[in-house]
Amino acid sequence: MTLLIKIGMSPLRCIVTGFTIACLLAGASPLAAQDECKVMEKVVSDASSKVHSTPTHIYTTSKVGGQTFASEIIYAAGSMYMNIDGKWTLAGSIKDLEQTEQQLKRDAHSRDICRSLKDETVNGELASVYTSHSETPKGTIDSQVWISRTRGLPLREVTTSDDGKATISTRYEYGNVRPPDVM
């Protein structure tokens, strides 16, 4: 978050962007020992690992307290790039992101209920759909994630807070992704 403030973002925008990044990094929150949660945890973890090693363009829309924010992230060439107010910025290495993700998993405490839903098509690609309901010390979070049946990569994700005041919708694209020109 300090990086975001240093590059000139407003505090509210920093919070929204930071929340978005944390959700993207963490995928679904750490999952309890329930069988379906173990399956979902493995599938989401494997998909996240593939995203880190696959050129990926991520489009996110965050709705918080009646305001909507759009953001973009690109994973390419071992780095993460963020589009902030129309300017691409190098935001760190994939290795740094993986370390942050591991720390988030160790620090989180939640009780989860997970389910595998029926398969759906996302942009012409068959995807397995997983849902989780997480109870954390800070509230509940409901998530759905669509994982490509053929490539094992996430295609879409929707996360909503317990009070409905925050929703993050994410779509992932993998074709023709390259590092952007950084300002």
Protein architecture, described:
The protein has a single domain (2-173), classed as outer membrane lipoprotein receptor (LolB), chain A (Clam), CATH 2.50.20. The protein is globular. It is α+β, with helices and mostly antiparallel strands and 183 residues long. It has 4 helices and 9 strands. The chain has a 9-stranded antiparallel sheet with strand order 4-3-2-1-9-8-7-6-5.
Describe how the helices and strands are arranged.
Layout: H1 2-6, H2 11-26, H3 35-53, E1 56-64, E2 67-76, E3 79-84, E4 87-93, H4 94-107, E5 111-122, E6 125-136, E7 139-148, E8 154-161, E9 166-173
The average pLDDT score comes to 78
For the CA atoms, what is the radius of gyration?
A: 16 Å
Helix content range: 25-40%
Summed up, the helix count is 4
User: Biggest sheet: strands, sense, closure?
Assistant: 9 strands, antiparallel
End-to-end separation in angstroms reads 19 Å
What's the order of the H and E elements? Answer: HHHEEEEHEEEEE
The CATH architecture category equals Clam
Strand order of the largest sheet: 4-3-2-1-9-8-7-6-5
Structural class: alpha+beta
Counted up, domains total 1
**CATH class annotation:** Mainly Beta
**Shape by Cα distribution:** globular
Q: Point out poorly predicted stretches.
A: 1-16, 19-33
CATH third-tier fold name: outer membrane lipoprotein receptor (LolB), chain A
